[in-house]
Design goal:
six-stranded mixed β-sheet, alpha+beta, about 250 residues, 8 helices
């Protein structure tokens, strides 16, 4: 890896290079673990992708205007001039190695809040009252791991997270919250709503499937809080905000 300052990119920038279709295909390649090598010699990024028995040695070059020159040998790149899914998968590996997901997310959330201040909150999302507001219904987030989460985690590296709102003494599924009901959360839950919406890439579903990396990030956010689990959600998983120190008894 070179010592010079590395160009900053995120998934939004990748989508601008390629469009949403190639981004989805590239993400599938990256999430499957098929990017097996990444070499950074900025502005040149090289990598090896293993697609079954087929190996692709791909690369791209950062340009001064923030775009890239795709040098992948695949047909989409050579004949169609596209930023292909292989380059996108390589870009995702680059982000994974060089990026700060928490800082990235904080910047996106701040940009969203500024937009909401000017235009109001998108009607697809929950209607929120400020934590200090006297308006809206007092509410609490209730996060629960689906009872089958160990099976999904082992087989697919995915954690199904059930999202509910506790309001008026009832647990309401995320997708069943009335669009005109303003919810007033604690400052911590208010912030967590924005974080979960960012992870979901939109309005919150009843079940949000998180890959291992996102689940680890969520657990880091939930330090000192808890998750529900079990069929009825009665089992509570406490997330410690301090390290567990090992003790050896002889």
């Amino acid at each position: 890896m070179t010592d010079q300052a590395l160009p900053y990119i995120n998934q939004s920038i990748l989508s601008g290079w390629s469009g949403p279709n190639e981004l989805r295909k590239g993400k599938r390649i990256f999430d499957a673990g098929w990017v097996e090598q990444l070499d950074i010699e900025a502005p040149l990024i090289r990598g090896r992708i293993q697609l079954g028995t087929r190996e692709i040695l791909t690369r791209f070059k950062f340009l001064p205007d923030g775009s890239i020159e795709n040098q992948c040998p695949c047909r989409d790149s050579r004949e169609r001039g596209l930023v292909c899914s292989h380059a996108i998968a390589l870009g995702l590996a680059y982000i994974d190695l060089t990026g700060d997901p928490h800082q990235d997310r904080a910047l996106r959330i701040e940009a969203r809040r500024q937009l909401e201040t000017r235009r109001g909150r998108d009607s697809r999302y929950w209607k929120l009252a400020g934590p200090e507001s006297l308006e809206g219904s007092e509410a609490r987030l209730r996060l629960k791991l689906d009872p089958s989460w160990p099976v999904f985690a082992e087989a697919q590296g995915v954690y199904p997270l059930l999202i509910q709102v506790r309001v008026g003494g009832k647990n309401i599924r995320a997708d069943k919250v009335h669009p005109h009901q303003a919810l007033r959360f604690s400052p911590m839950d208010h912030e967590l709503v924005y974080i979960l919406e960012d992870m979901a890439g939109g309005a919150l579903p009843a079940c949000l499937s998180l890959h291992t990396e996102l689940m680890v990030q969520l657990l880091a956010t939930l330090k000192g809080q808890s998750l529900h689990s079990g069929g009825d959600g009665a089992e509570v998983i406490e997330i410690l905000d301090r390290p567990i120190l090992p003790h050896l008894s002889l």
